[in-house]
Structures
1.
Amino acid sequence: MQQILRQFRFAGSVECCEPYGNGHVNRTYHVVCSGGAEYILQRINRVAFQEPVELMENIDAVTRFMAAQHGPLQALRFIETVDGGILAVDGEGEYWRAYDFVGSGVCLESPRSTGDFYEAAIAFGRFQMALSDFPAASLHETIPHFHDTCDRIRQLRVSVAADPLGRVDGVQPEIAFVLSREQELGELCRQLSAGELPLRVTHNDTKLNNVLFDERTGKAKCVLDLDTVMPGLSAYDFGDAVRFGASTAAEDEKDLSKVEIDLAMYEAFLRGYLDACGDVLTRREIEVLPLGAKIMTAEVGMRFLKDYIDGDIYFSIHRPGHNLDRARTQLKLVADMERKWDEMQHILREVAGARL
Ligand code: ADP
Ligand code: GN1
Ligand code: MG
């Protein structure tokens, strides 16, 4: 670790460097220096991100673009390395980066109130608006086919066929749940390829803990975790946020009876998202927002399931069966959305009003 810490131009000598946050993909540390300067240091996950240089080019360009706008969201800022770059490589060939620590802030694992979730929606909606003129063609695809749900189903089938650890027998109901919905889960891919939905520059990983709230005002202050900023659909950002933040239980809850979609949270996010970016969304984009919630939830469910079958290669796990527990909560949420589908549509019509 010392070897990595020495490679960044931190203000002062490093006094403390400790694991930080609840991300599933990168390895994150909080660094405190003499004099009080604080940083986030991250080891980039090479299973997820095969082209770290391109990944960093994306984030660097996006954060600079946002900083130049002086908008309400604070832009992340990379710390330079001693040789003037933004990436450091350790003795094992792992890639590291550092950011200014955004202070006086808090990341939430679940909204404390509908007000929190409304604020998160404002942040992701504003984030999308801030990037509406960003040159999308200059962005690298950091994870090819990231939200291509049809391809995710194909990948699940490949893992099921390979069954490297003999885990498939134990997850037949979960596999059947996904495959029996294949047609509907492919709906956003189909509408995108048919040109019925516009590609925008989206965040693509809109978990609540990727927003930092100002501790004092309770307003969203900064959007974090820009690894997957790429051309995408508004329904991806809306849907992924709802699947995480509008669940009544944690993403890895073992007791599935506790897992439901909270319609008050869904409504709060819908209001915030439309307040922030509703004026630019097409009618069709607004119509498919509930479908986005269902498809993104099923998609993450099948990704957790695939990773469980593969032997827990992609997502960090903290206990045996962790990815299976996560997969099950997501599929339970999908089932609950199906039960509440008419209400979800009704809330959409109420909130969107004349926009539909
Ligand atoms: P992962 O891709 O693994 O989810 P993130 O970039 O989301 O990694 O970082 C993990 C956590 O670290 C975030 O949820 C947040 O709590 C914290 N974090 C990340 N960047 C910053 C930052 N610049 N300032 C303050 N906290 C941060
Ligand atoms: C990962 O990196 P993190 O923890 O914010 C994943 C998302 C999943 C999420 C599930 C790059 O998000 O796609 O929805 O876990 N990020 C990547 O919790 O794969
Ligand atoms: Mg994250």
2.
Amino acid sequence: MTSQTLREARKYEEAFEKLIKEEERPAFHLSPRTGWMNDPNGFSYYKGQYHMFYQYYPYESKWGPMHWGHAVSGDLLHWEYLPAALAPDEAYDRDGCFSGSAIELPDGRQLLMYTGVVKEHKDNAEQEVQTQCIAVGDGIDYEKYAENPALDEKDLPEGASRIDFRDPKMWKRADGTYACAIGSRPADGSGQILLYVSKDGVHWEFQSILASNNNRFGKMWECPDIFELDGEWALLTSPQDMLPEGFEYHNGNGTLCLLGSFDEEAGVFHERHNQTIDYGIDFYAPQTVLTPDGRRVMIGWMQNWDACSIRSPEAPWLGQMSLPRELFIRNGRLCQRPVRELEEMRCNRAAYSDVTVSGTVKLEGIKGRRVDMEILLRPGNPAEPYHKFAVRFAQNDRYYTSLSFRPKESILKIDRKFSGSRRAIIHQRRSLVDTVDGELKLRMILDRFSVEVFVNDGEQVMTATMYTEQEADGISFFADGTAKIDVVKYDLQ
Ligand code: FRU
């Protein structure tokens, strides 16, 4: 039975979606049908299609009582909206249906687990109590489980907070049973990931503390995901209130990847390595899916919580998903590349080799805001390295965003302070990259309101949104000193 609250949301989104013109949205990054979007939820492959649900408030372009928006795609790039899947319409989730995940049941139905939020007023203070709830459906309509919540404070280990207990990520194990990783806050005030197990996907029990922050990486660990990758295990989580460590991590809500091993019997993850997932400005709360052909693909929320004011509150939508990225491990690090399906969207190739860049250079045919561009950079003369190289894009007489590289420091910087933003928010970020003799390989993907930069075949990624007017479609190259580049550019259609 569809509730009144969900019916209203579905009616509203259908009417208001029509007011947003196609060219006012990204072309191949998912944006909310209308209003507000944050975390990806329930990213899954079900009945022959990819399903993406998302944290959704249809009525305004700002965060509000959370619904789940819903879209499907055959190739992870062209998305079709489906009606909103969940609304905060029950006593146990009346203040929000927070993030969660999806699995397929043996009978062919899809099961969603999400965090139900209820505000409690106690001693003149308000607190949000969080539980895990279930809904089962057919890929369009979902029925909430009569015995919700499926997990509540009774299922917490000692010391774990009932206020920070969210973002269940389920997966199916080889023996046909299910496991679920959930973000939690232990008594030390930082973060931990709890592991729950289930035989049927509906009845769950606590197994163990999967991983502990011990106050190292930020505070509360949100939106966990755990999976096998190239012979190791990866645990992704998004810590709140991080502090930078050199060029690794950055202030605020960030993304953390731990690589190591997972003792499934004991339910404990053993860390070998930690790193940032995305070194740019706008990336958070990623979730992954296993594709039918065995690729592990990740999509994150392409926005920074502290920088939401980059977009005017009058805009009809706010929030985008990142590109789907194939994950792999190389030299012991998590690496990412755009899904190969993107190559099918390429057209209008323009290629140049051995271009000398000294001062500013523009190249015929190299411009646009929906672009896939590869740049191979090297010094013009090995004996005389350049001081700085930059690509400026989304550029006209007034605006541009730039990616600049100083080989001596090995620092790549993204900077959108001239992108037309009127806000005093974070506009630049720097990353330490690997270079030998000033050589660097860059692949930049532009889609109207964003840029994602893949460095050295996916060793690092830097992501940023920019809401520059679309007329600003210039691309130019600059060097202080002399650099040489090979460039291949495609439009994406
Ligand atoms: C992360 C997050 C999640 C929560 C959701 C609420 O961005 O804070 O922890 O489930 O957003 O919208």
